[in-house]
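User: For documentation purposes, I need each entry recorded in a consistent format: the amino acid sequence on its own, followed directly by the corresponding structure tokens. There are two entries in this batch. Please keep commentary to a minimum and don't merge the entries.

Assistant: Recorded as requested. Entry 1:
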Amino acid sequence: MPTRILNGMGRTTLKMPQLGESVTEGTVDRWLKQEGDMVRRDEPIVEVVTDKVNAEIPSPFEGRLVRIDVQPGQTVPIGAALAEIEVEGATPATAPAAPAKPAEPAEPAEPRAEPPHAAATPAPATEHARVSPAVRKLVQDHDLDLSQIAGSGPGGRVTREDVQAYLASKPAPAAAAAPAAPRTGERGDEIVRISAVRRQIAEHMVRSVSTSPHAWSLREVDVTKLQAYREANKDEFSQRYGFPLSYVPFFVQIVSDALLKNLYLNSTWTDEGIVLHHFVNMGIAVALPDALIVPVIKDADLMGFTDLAHAINDIANRARNKQLKPEDVRGGTFTLNNTGAFGSVAGQSIINQPQAAILSTESIRKRPVVVNDEIVIRPIMNLTMSFDHRIVDGLAASRFINDVSKAIEDWSPASLKL
């Protein structure tokens, strides 16, 4: 639909943005503005989630939000129309994914003072009408026929209120009533709603395992020298820069060097061939209360240690505060996962598509080991790696993880790239 010019004002379309490689769709989590609200250019307008990121999308225009096309909980493909914004002097826009009615004015926000079934002649829904996952689950839980429910949303879309009104008008048998969730301390089952971001993560993990034949490797590493340096310098570092000195920037430098020596670990499988990346964009897995996000440090192999530490701290904080931008999760060539921060000693991570491998640094534990035929106590860490067996065989994986292990065990202050 081209932009429509009305009394000197034009309407332009806000579309679902591309939020990372291999991402084909996104889910609207919540609207930060409502129909009729004024929005400024670059002001966050909607929160969108995918398996890679939970991001606030800024408005590319200044104007009035006149129509919301995608409701919270709905999943739509990249490029689909999310909303219309009325702007002054807008130029014609390209057609959105779904056509609208050009001759009709924007629909007003649906009133909430009375139930939807009181609206005049609502449109009947079809089995293929767009409904949110929450509404679809409600219909399935009550074994309802969606085509029998009148939809009062835009385009005849069935809303949660429509389903609830339909249920209220048709008393269900006592046996069909859903049991109430148990209160705290009571025995029984409780249903926890699956969030949009958790559903996206689940789908991405299934796709990854079904796409790449995962192989796995584990290596024990003595971190005596690196641990001693960090312990001696962490207080001064924290006072000087204002954030803790973690092991992550050390590992990023070490892994980046090893990747450039073992390019098949820093590659991507395509139909045309294996793409070897002669640079390192390091994905850093960041755990959130209900999700896992992998922002990317671009050109990590070129960064000095202090700049790298600042970049990792910054991007982790922005991930936790939902301040990542779409470009922050794009272009990763390899992923580093610091599962040791949560006490893990070994685990098999799932590859972050379309990368070739993911390396996890596990927790450091004091253990008895044999050194020069003597039993001594040393801080030992496990390195675990999952890799795409289409690209990497055991020999190449062993060479890479050997390079990483040796660099950690032989580490010295001279190893730092400043």
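Entry 2:
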Amino acid sequence: MPDIPLEEVERIAKLARLRFEISEKPKLQKELSDILAYVDQLKEVESKIIEAEPDDKALNLVREDVSINSDDPEEFLKQAPSREGKFIKVKSILE
């Protein structure tokens, strides 16, 4: 793949709000061309979905998700590491 034009490099740099010295632009031109060539190679690769075969040795250790009703909210609140009245107190993430 031929090098992309310097005008295109300048346009991409402007869109990305990047500034380069004039001496750096040919190197960037080469690097961008190499990246685009690599992307073209990846486009040519045929992708396949490989189905996993069941493994008799695999064991699913996930427990059944069961909800339990609690008539006493205090029982739930006792488990909180910190609370204020009938509310669970958490660390502030917004300031």
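Summary note for entry 2:
The chain has a mean pLDDT of 84.
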